[in-house]
Every structure is written in structure tokens, then in C-alpha cells.
Amino acid sequence: MSADRVPVRAPKGTNDILPPGSFRWQELVRLAQDSFERAGYAPVETPTFEDTALFERGVGETSEVVTKQMYTFEDLGGRSLTLRPEGTAGVVRAVIEHSLDRGPLPIKLNYASWMFRQERPQKGRYRQFFQVGIEAMGTDHPTIDAEVIQVGDSFLRAAGATPTLLLNSIGHLADDCRTGYNRTLVGFLRDHEDELAPEDVKRIDTNPMRTFDSKEEKTIVVMASAPVITDHLCDACTEHFAQVKGYLDDLGVIYTLEPRLVRGLDYYTRTAFEFVWSGLGSQNAMGGGGRYDGLAEMLGGNPLPGIGFALGVDRILLALNEEHSSRGTREQEGFQGGPKVEVYFVAIGDEAAGEALRLATRLRLSGIGADLDHARRGMKGQMKDAARSGAKYAAILGDEELAAGQVTLRDLTTGEQERISITDLEARVRTG
């Protein structure tokens, strides 16, 4: 085979979303957006690429995302641009740029967008991945922390997942809080430097708290005895965290305190959380988030406290599939994506095919899903297609039906069928 005939394949680390799984993928995204909007989070979409400086300043120049994972390129004008590796920085940039922070507060937004990170592909973790998330900006009151966490938890449970919510506070950048704690942690890490993985030794001077997130076994053993941030919080952060936990208790949100939980981006402060599921193995996070009270200032804006989360659609679907398999059940308990066709027209002959197209169009315009055969298969082939479509009914049109102004409506579940007038078809389908 010549080189120009070799099949072109998708880039490494990407994933095609195809039927029938694409129906569940799409329905999960819709469920997320509906859940978020019911809590007052309006939809927003930002550019797929941004000035590279946005992520260097916001996410952190020493973070692994910026140093190793970003897709950065120079455009024809010599500008350095980056495909967004995460959603929060772009949303905060948009809020500042369009002066939304000068209007009513808090600002509550949701997004459903593609992200890009050049990292080693793993199960359910791709280089192009889709996230749903929310951001709330303009208040640091603990009630908004509790609301954001509860909205994420309730969405995942509505989808059929049973996540474990890990919760922590990582304090704020003050000498009597995280800054002071970091000095204590650095001292501990220096004492155990020879026991750490080489990659984690480099983090001691750049981002010591990230050693808690290491996947290296040597480092994990060391960090099990490391001092934790919750023992070093200032009074204000301690009180803030206590109130967040109190509100979550009031809402019935179950959480597990995890004093070693940190987040991978530099802008996080105070409340930090993750939704995990053990069935995903070592990479068990479905998503997470936290508070980012200084991010707006990093991006050149006025002080604008914020909190949000991002959840990976691929990770959620993988968790649902694994959980579903472990139960040995055939159906998901939360949502069931699938074709939206209710009536499949089976037409015999050219005249019937034309009428089937007209009737299918009429049903679609009235809000009823309808499909038909366009390949001119025989009766048997069309009935197979009708069954594969997921439709509840097959509406059969032949010469006799056309002459009488009728269709034969067959229930594809029970096999029962009846002749009805074409003019009664819509009403009959709606009543079931």
C-alpha cells in the first residue's frame, strides 16, 4: 500500500465519540447544564485558545500544567497562544474584560467545553477532554462554597454515580497561614530529601504542597508522616472551613475530610475538594475544584473572590460504566442516553417513501422524534432498522395504507399493531 493510502488515524491521546455512546455523552452534558442552570448558573463559552500569558499568570509558571502539558503555538502574527488546559482562568478573564464584576454580585456561570493537555494518555484521561463546570465570583461567604459543592454532588448522583467527596482547606497566602506552613513543610521535605522521588525533590523550592499529590511510591510513603495544612490554618481560615462544613452538614452532603488533599493549579486557596470513585483505580478523580480568591488580581483585575469546579465527562462516564458493570445490571440508574426516535416509518414503494418523509417531517416539527429508511431496503430490512433505531413504533406504509389514508402502527415492544388514520397518528403516538 502506498504512503498516501495509509489510513489516517486520530492523534494519540484523543478519543472519537460515536453512537450509541455519543447519546449518553450528550445527555450527560445536558443533565449537567440543566442542573447548573436550575441553581442560577448562566451558560458561558470562552475561546478555545487564549494568550499564553493568561495561563502562565493564572495557573502558575511552575505548575506542571504550564511547564509540561500545555499546547502552545505561535500564530502568524507572532503571538504566543495556548489551547486552554482548564476553564477557570478564561472565565475569570472574560468577567474582568467585560466588566461583569461591576454589576450584581455574585456572578454565577457554567460552562461545557473542550480542554487540552499534553500528558500521558491513561484510561479515561485524554489529551483533548470535555469538562462541565461552574464558577461563582464576588463573595467569599461559606454559603457559596457549600452551594457549589452541593450542586456538583447532586449532579453526579442524578447521573447515577456514587462519588466520595474529599474535602480540605489549604488556607490563604499569609505568614500565619499557608506561607508559614510552607516553610514548615519545606523543612520536613529537606530532612527527607533522599527518600523522595527525583521529580518531587524539584518541587521543594517551587511548589512544596504538590508533593502531596505525587504518584511516586517513594514520595507517598514520606508524605504519610508530613505535617498537614489543617494544623496550621489561621483563625479566619479555620472559622471559614468550619462554616463550610456546617452548611454541608445542613444540606445533607456527605464528605470525607482529607487533610492531604491539594489541587494541581496554583490559584487555589481555602476550600479544596474532589469527587472520586475507587473503581477508577489510581486515577480515581472524576473532578474537583476549590476557592481561588486571588486569581482576578493575578490577571490584572480588582479583587474578586471565587469558587468553582470542573468535572470530566469522560471520567464520569467511565465511572458509571465501571459501577454499572460491578452491579451486573443492564441499565444505568440515573440517566439513559439513546436515540430519540419514537416512530420509524417503513415505506414500501416510491409513493409511500415520499409520504413517509412528509409524515416524519410533520412529527419532528411537532416535537416527536421520527426517522425513515433512505436506502430503499425491503420490508424485512426496514423492520430491522426500526428495531435498531430504538423507536417505540414502526409506522408501516404500503399501497393499501396509502389508498385508505392510513398507516399500520406496530408496537415494537409488544408486537401488537393497528390500522389508524394518518390524521390521527400524532395524537396516537402522544397518548402511547
Short key terms for the protein model shown above:
about 425 residues; alpha+beta; BirA Bifunctional Protein, domain 2; Rossmann fold; 2 domains; eight-stranded mixed beta sheet; five-stranded mixed beta sheet; 16 helices; 16 strands; about 20% strand; elongated
Care to describe what's here?
This protein has 432 residues and is of the alpha+beta class. The chain has 2 domains: 8-177 and 233-327, 2-Layer Sandwich (BirA Bifunctional Protein, domain 2), CATH 3.30.930; 343-431, Rossmann fold (3-Layer(aba) Sandwich). Helices cover 38% and strands 20% of the residues. An 8-stranded mixed β-sheet has the order 1-5-6-11-10-9-7-8, with helices on both faces. A 5-stranded mixed β-sheet has the order 13-12-14-15-16, with helices on both faces. The longest helix has 18 residues, at 21-38. It is elongated. Residues 330-334 have low confidence and may be disordered.
Sum this structure up briefly:
It contains 16 helices and 16 strands.
CATH superfamily of the largest domain: Bira Bifunctional Protein, Domain 2
Number of helices: 16
The portion of residues assigned to helices is: 25-40%
What coarse outline follows from CA principal-axis ratios? Answer: elongated
The pLDDT mean sits at 90
**Beta-strand residue percentage:** 15-25%
Cα distance spanning the termini: 55 Å
What is the makeup of the main sheet?
8 strands, mixed
Question: Can you count the beta strands?
Answer: 16
Number of folding domains?
2
CATH class category label of the largest domain: Alpha Beta
CATH overall fold name of the largest domain? BirA Bifunctional Protein, domain 2
Q: Which regions have little confidence, pLDDT < 50, spanning 5+ residues? A: 330-334
For the record, the CATH architecture of the largest domain stands as: 2-Layer Sandwich
Which oligomerization state do the chains in this entry correspond to? single chain
Radius of gyration: 27 Å
